[in-house]
Write a structure and sequence with these properties.
Largest sheet: 18 strands, antiparallel, barrel
Number of strands: 25
Order of helices and strands: HEEEEEEEEHEEEEHEEEEHHEEEEEEEEE
Structural class: mainly beta
Shape: globular
């Protein structure tokens, strides 16, 4: 279906290209970083040796929008990424990292859709659009959606503008999983190339609204997504979520955002269905999350604090904030929230200070407190050679600092440092609790938007 949608969209472009107006926008970003103890080692004891890693990558994202006529628009997004990871041996000879390139020369066409303005109030979009992460409870309201970094899905989406303050939308989502997907992708089936027999057609529906009343925004949505059975005896399973965020964000003064989310699943066999998808033990589950961010904003500075809560149940698992929830450099960004510290309550104080016209300083301190009621009950292997299990006494903290210089209105150069420390966690090499050495992260970034 993906290929058919892409062919249909590109055919429309070819047919009307001679008359189309072209708009282009996007961004370029180059990053370099050095991470010490990226595997959560503790100095070479029985748990895990320390290891360091250096990374370099660059990304170019380009949107091309073809205005065929006042009521028809075709948008295509290309994504180019190149990078390298340089590993270094730990003190005992263990090796972590990868000296080869990852994604070297990778070029993707990962979004392509056509939009029709049926009336002044009704717009219909067809193709591969960005989708809310409907498999969990959190929605895009907490993420920076400027360049639509969330996942793409084949969709039919209708948006209706009820008034200047209110618009509603409904989306049908289709997602085919083949047996040749990457091992880390949801629903992967290994061992056969018979895609028709071992893949499966999945579908979902999302409905929501976006409302803004004189600066007060309210964004509710509900979603339902179902996974079909396949030849590997993977049973069908369904996921659902209900979400709402609200807040105010004036240019100066008090800013606040509050969000509540409830998500769950239903499967014929939890051990093989939902458990394979989200790591839950029960065949039916429900979890919830909450988020509050309050800040005082002035031209010269911003100070604020936030709290994020993930519920946990031994039989049901935990609420996941999603991979785009990056409030800290190491725990959320580098390790990823689910892998960095799942099933927890996060507290953060932050400040952004304008030092001069083009120079600013960002500071934050964060603390993660486990919501687990037993020992060594939640754990994951991460892509960085790290296993971490948490228990009722586990906790972590992180300090972040970033200095940013706006070279032009479109280009920013940033340098930063972060330090994170995990306490009373677990490792596959021993059932005993241990507190690994701290993780230090240094980085620089050049980013240009156009």
């Amino acid at each position: 279906m993906k290929k058919l949608l892409l062919i249909a969209i590109l055919s429309l472009f070819v047919a009307g290209a001679y008359a189309a107006e072209l708009q282009m926008f996007g961004y370029y970003e180059m990053n370099g970083n050095f991470v010490s103890n990226n595997n959560l080692g503790d100095g070479g004891s029985k748990y895990q040796e320390n290891a360091d890693v250096a990374n370099f990558d660059q990304t170019l994202v380009v949107y091309a929008r073809f205005i065929v006529d006042p009521k028809v628009r075709i948008t295509v997004r290309s994504y180019i990424m190149d990078g390298r990871i340089l590993g270094r041996e730990g003190p005992g000879g263990s090796y972590y990292g990868n000296t080869g390139g990852y994604g070297t020369g990778n070029v993707f066409l990962d979004r392509a859709w056509v939009a029709y303005d049926i009336t002044e109030a009704l717009t219909v979009e067809l193709g591969r659009l960005t989708a809310n992460d409907y498999t969990v409870g959190w929605a895009s309201g907490l993420y920076d959606g400027t360049f639509e970094e969330m996942g793409g899905r084949d969709q039919i989406k209708a948006t209706y503008k009820v008034s200047d303050e209110v618009s509603v939308y409904a989306t049908y989502i289709h997602d085919y999983e083949s047996s040749t997907q990457d091992p880390g992708e949801m629903g992967n089936v290994r061992g056969s190339n018979d895609n028709q027999a071992n893949g499966r057609d999945n579908w979902g529906v999302v409905a929501g609204a976006k409302m803004d009343f004189n600066g007060l925004f309210v964004n509710p949505y509900i979603s339902y997504y179902t996974y079909q059975a396949n030849a590997y005896s993977r049973p069908p399973a369904s996921l659902y979520s209900v979400y709402v965020d609200a807040g105010m964000a004036p240019a100066e003064g008090l800013n606040w955002t509050v969000a509540l989310a409830y998500s769950g699943g239903m499967g014929d066999d939890g051990d093989k269905g939902i458990a394979e998808i989200n790591g839950f033990k029960a065949k039916d589950y429900s979890v919830y999350g909450a988020y509050l961010d309050v800040a005082f904003v002035q031209e010269a500075f911003t100070v604020g604090g936030l709290v994020a809560y993930s519920s946990f149940d031994e039989k049901n698992g935990w609420f996941t904030f999603g991979g785009d929830f990056d409030k800290t450099t190491i725990i959320d960004g580098y390790f990823g929230y689910e892998y960095g510290f799942p099933a927890s309550t996060m507290f953060q104080l932050y400040a952004d200070i304008s030092l001069m016209e083009a120079l600013s300083l960002g500071l934050s301190g964060s603390y993660y407190m486990s919501n687990v009621d037993k020992d060594n009950i939640v754990g994951y292997d991460t892509s960085y050679g790290t296993f971490m299990g948490i228990g009722k006494d586990s906790n972590a903290y992180e300090f972040d600092a970033e200095l940013s210089y706006a070279f032009t209105e479109s280009t920013t150069f940033s340098v930063g440092a972060a330090y994170a420390k995990f306490n009373d966690i677990y490792n596959t090499r021993s059932p005993d609790k241990y507190s690994p050495d701290g993780v230090t992260y240094f980085y620089w970034t050049v980013a240009t938007e156009f």
